[in-house]
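Case study 2.
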Amino acid sequence: QCKKGDTIGSFLELVRKDLASEFREMGNVSADALLYVKEDLIIPQDITFYDLISSKARGKSGPLFQFDVHDDIRLGVVDVRVEKDESHPGKIVERRWYDRNKHIFPASRWEVFDPAKVYGRYTIHGGEVSSAK
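Prediction:
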């Protein structure tokens, strides 16, 4: 669980401590050597979860975090061209792993999150699919 003012960096430190009991190599890694990737965006460690949620930050394929009430999408025709407001689980990787694999999918699609940039259009399989709402 995270508190309102927790940064991505403090979250990564909690995750590192939690994983250190299962993976010995995590005991030797600092939180600065970890990356949090959400919706193909590398989230900087100084940003807080609260900032991302309150600003309704968007990723390449939709909102980074979505806590609204949803209609049941199984009740109708499913159109793949319509943007879904569901978010995917985040990934935590070592920076060293990313540096070695950034030319290989999926890391080749990742970029550093910029709050000023508009991630309005997203692609699937390299093709243009939909535009922002």
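The mean pLDDT is 78.
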